[in-house]
Design goal:
The complex is a heterotrimer of chains A (71), B (208) and C (559). Chain A is mainly α and 71 residues long. Chain A has two helices and no strands. With 559 residues, chain C is mainly α. Chain C has helices at residues 2-7, 23-28, 33-61, 72-107, 116-139, 152-155, 159-187, 200-232, 245-279, 286-300, 315-327, 329-343, 352-375, 377-383, 387-417, 423-450, 464-494, and strands at residues 526-527, 540-541. In chain C, helix 3 runs antiparallel to helix 17 (464-494). Classes of the chains: A mainly alpha (71), B mainly alpha (208), C mainly alpha (559). Chains in contact: A-B, B-C.
């Protein structure tokens, strides 16, 4: 049986990234009011992680990453 | 008393009870660790600048004879690393809420995901080198910038995996308590730093 | 004031390490910031002697238009190592490592820096780096100048890779020191020591520390890339493989321009301590001096490309870099005006430290003004790569940084050793050094404008006359430095006893015995004001027991 590995990869990436985004966004929301310098840094990091989730999702569904000499 | 109304230098003048030495030492170590991360960011930023500069010297990208990187596989791998950032966050959260079992589970999950990311990167490197014949020193500035930056990041992930494993073992042996767990905070900061750097590297190598 | 102690009972301020036992823990692998500072100073001066000898090789070679003292290849190696060593092994370690370590923790009323072990490691990276750098002569030293531009550095002898490794090591050391100092300054100040009450030397270190931390890391990246390219053939800078030599210049100068201020800002701090002390007057414009240090530090990150006007950069970028560079003259000018205003109508005592500080103002202002010349693109196109550049950089580095460092040694030597350096010999040292220095480097401006290129082993015979005069004066300068070292060594045993405060200075380090105890302060003092108001009583409380026989604080239990 022929498996289209690229399709599998893209599906896994898209689904996984949605989970990452949701988890990071919820964690960010829960932590929103924590004080202290390390928590401020954590919040920035969680925000960037959520953005990372969005980017990985868009790359997974082939929206991003099609530019320049695409093969 | 006049002394009480003095404008104080930071931190030293607060009377926080018996464990003030720990509180103050923790402050110092936290700032020191954050500054270390800042200088590490500068290290990555310099190489990223070098990469973008070289890429804009007027040649087509990727250079002739080199095919584009495998975006689909890389996005799975990125998702794995970003996921490990989330599990790391919950590991620390559970430690703070005194839930040791959940902490250990999330910590192990983080380490496993980190190893998976390294495995994925190893697979990607092997494919590139053996199938596409793209190497560190033999493929012009493409190979140089790609392998140097991702290799540097991979090294940081590997160090992170060892670091987190050490922290896990230490916490199993009771080195940290509910109030004194700076090592875990530092580990979390480091791991998040490694994740977030990858957001940037993934974008600039695979997506533009 | 019993309440003073209870304010911070149990914190870091009262935390005392057990007294180090044995020679090795006390003087070699010491974690005491004062010992580490002195270690930096000794090592830095040893490297100063070595790099100074290389400078004399250069001057002897240039006595004759046809050279003849060393071969052209050796000459290239000599000036490359001379420059690298003076920048990374002499001035930066002396300005930050030596004075920073010894002085500023005392001035902010701390028992040590934030991370004493890290401090020890930073120091111990430094001597091996020096050995690597000078050892590169064995393999064929780097020959592309201290800037090591590719492609020449790519083709250089194997020693060039050792150069990379050496500078990388000093870089790590400098990064860790910067981090350490920054945390110490942010977190370890004595009660009442707000930022606007800090001595100006601390402000100078506070402006320098982030630069050593951030800029040096960028240099580490550049060095790593050069090393990888040389050793493993990974193309970054080789244009035949798609790399770019200009990239190196960007990465190198992004570090090395801030490095210029890493070398001068701490010295500004030294001068700002010496002037009020010996003019018996409050420093003029305390806040202006403090903030101008910080603004110089910020601006220094935005001007690196003014070193590259002739490297083929876009004309549209030249103007902003030129203007930004000229802007630096404003905070620097503010400092110089403030210093001169501090001296104005003061009751000046011409000690050796004061003479060096006044000499510093003259030469540094001169070097600063030629710097403004060079920032102007049209002038830079004309003077680039000539002896005018050599003259400018030696006026700011020797006449600026090194003279400030010498002033600082004369000023703090009694605190380090408990004895004064000989003042009469010091006066001779100053005048010989000052005359020798100006005689060596002043004619270089003229030679540069006439078109004598730098970094050449032989030159047009029309320049020979002035070159011979320069060489003779350079021997005078070297002799002055030898006098200085003789004075330092002689005074350790035979100098006059200094007592705790020989200069009548008002910063905290002078209120405790010389040399200080390993724990610095018996009780951490409380600070009420800036230290410079000579009309007022000392603004400190809690120092009553420092100079009597009261036993020191008990070390904390080992844990």
């Amino acid at each position: 049986m022929h498996i289209d590995w690229v399709l599998v990869e893209r599906t896994v990436a898209a689904v996984g990234s949605v989970i990452v985004f949701v988890v990071a966004a919820v964690a960010l929301k829960n932590d929103w009011k924590t004080p202290g310098i390390e928590n401020q840094v954590f919040k920035v990091m969680l925000g960037l992680l959520a953005i990372g989730g969005v980017i990985a999702f868009l790359a997974g569904i082939d929206v991003l990453g099609r530019f320049a000499g695409a093969a | 008393m006049a002394v009480a109304s003095l404008p104080h230098g930071d931190a030293l003048a607060h009377d926080d009870g018996p464990d003030q030495l720990y509180v103050e030492t923790r402050e110092l170590r936290l700032q020191g660790f954050l500054l270390f991360l800042v200088s590490d960011v500068v290290l990555f930023a310099s190489f990223i600048f070098a990469y973008l500069y070289l890429r804009n010297t007027g040649q087509s990208w990727p250079p002739a004879g080199i095919s584009r990187l495998d975006v689909a596989f890389a996005s799975v791998n990125s998702m794995v690393l970003f996921g490990s950032g989330c599990t790391m966050h919950y590991a620390l959260e559970n430690w703070k809420h005194n839930n040791f079992t959940k902490y250990a589970v999330f910590m192990v999950a983080t380490i496993v995901l980190g190893v998976m990311f390294l495995g994925g990167q190893g697979y990607e490197y092997t494919t590139l080198m053996l199938k596409d014949h793209v190497t560190w020193s033999g493929s012009g500035i493409f190979g140089a910038s790609f392998f140097t930056l991702t290799g540097m990041h991979g090294f940081h992930v590997a160090v992170g995996v060892i670091y987190l494993t050490t922290l896990l073992l230490q916490s199993l042996h009771g080195k940290y308590t509910k109030d004194k767990y700076f090592g875990l905070t530092a580990g979390t900061l480091y791991w998040h730093f490694v994740d977030v750097i990858w957001v940037v590297l993934f974008s600039i190598f695979y997506l533009i | 004031m019993a309440a003073v102690e209870t304010v911070h009972a149990g914190g870091i301020a009262d935390h005392v390490h057990p007294e180090p036992q044995g020679f090795v823990r006390k003087y070699i692998f010491s974690i005491d910031h004062k010992i580490i500072g002195i270690q930096y100073m000794i090592t830095g001066f040893v490297f100063l002697v070595l790099a100074g000898l290389l400078a004399e090789v250069i001057r002897v070679q240039l006595m004759h238009a046809n050279g003849g003292f060393v071969s052209a290849d050796t000459y290239n190696e000599v000036y490359s190592i001379h420059g690298s060593a003076m920048v990374w092994l002499v001035v930066i370690p002396l300005a930050t490592g030596a004075f920073g370590n010894f002085v500023f923790p005392l001035q902010i009323g701390a028992r040590d820096v934030a991370f004493p072990w890290l401090n020890m490691i930073s120091f111990w990276l430094f001597p091996p780096a020096g050995l690597l750098l000078f050892g590169s002569f064995l393999l064929g030293a780097p020959a592309a100048g201290w800037t090591e531009y590719p492609p020449m550095s790519l083709q250089g002898a194997p020693g060039t890779s050792m150069w990379c490794a050496a500078i990388f090591l000093v870089g790590i050391s400098s990064t860790m020191t910067g981090l350490n100092f920054l945390v110490t300054l942010l977190k370890m100040r004595a009660p009442g020591m707000t930022f606007t009450r800090m001595p100006l030397f601390c402000w100078a270190q506070f402006a320098t520390a982030p630069m050593s931390m951030i800029a040096t890391t960028a240099l580490a990246a550049a060095l790593a890339a050069l090393f990888m390219e040389r050793q493993f053939g990974v193309p970054f800078f080789d244009p035949t493989k798609g790399g770019s030599p200009i990239l190196w210049q960007h990465m190198f100068w992004f570090y090395s321009h801030p490095a210029v201020y890493i070398m001068i800002l701490p010295v500004f701090g030294i001068i700002s301590e010496i002037f009020p002390t010996f003019a018996r007057k409050p420093i003029f414009g305390y806040k202006m001096i403090a903030f101008s240090s910080v603004s110089i530090a910020l601006l220094s990150f935005m001007v690196w490309a003014h070193h590259m006007f002739t490297s083929g950069m876009a004309p549209a970028l030249q103007l902003p870099f030129m203007v930004l560079t000229m802007l630096i003259a404003i905070p620097t000018g503010i400092k110089i005006f403030s210093w001169v205003a501090t001296l104005w109508e003061g009751k000046i005592r011409y000690t050796t430290a004061m003479l060096f500080a006044i000499g510093f103002i003259a030469t540094f202002t001169f070097g600063g003004i030629t710097g403004v010349f060079l920032s102007a693109v049209p002038f830079d196109l004309h003077a680039h790569g000539t002896y005018f550049i050599v003259a400018h950089l030696h006026y700011v580095l020797v006449g600026g940084s090194l003279m400030g460092i010498l002033a600082g040694v004369y000023y703090w030597y009694p605190k380090m050793t408990g004895r004064l350096m000989n003042d009469k010999l010091g006066h001779w040292t100053f005048w010989l050094f000052f005359i020798g220095f100006n005689g060596t480097f002043l004619p270089m401006h003229m030679l540069g404008l006439l078109g004598m290129p730098r970094r050449v082993a032989t030159y047009d015979p029309q320049f020979q006359h002035w070159n011979q005069i320069e060489s003779i004066f350079s021997f005078v300068m070297t002799f002055a430095l030898l006098l200085f070292f003789a004075n330092m060594l002689w005074s350790i045993r035979h100098g006059k006893k200094a007592g705790s405060n020989p200069w009548g200075a008002r910063t905290l380090e002078w209120q405790i015995p010389s040399p200080p105890h390993y724990y610095n302060f018996k009780h951490i003092p409380t600070v009420f004001s800036t230290p410079y108001d000579f009309a007022e009583p000392l603004p400190y409380a809690g120092l009553e027991d420092e100079l009597n026989d009261t036993p020191g604080p008990m070390p904390a239990a080992v844990h």
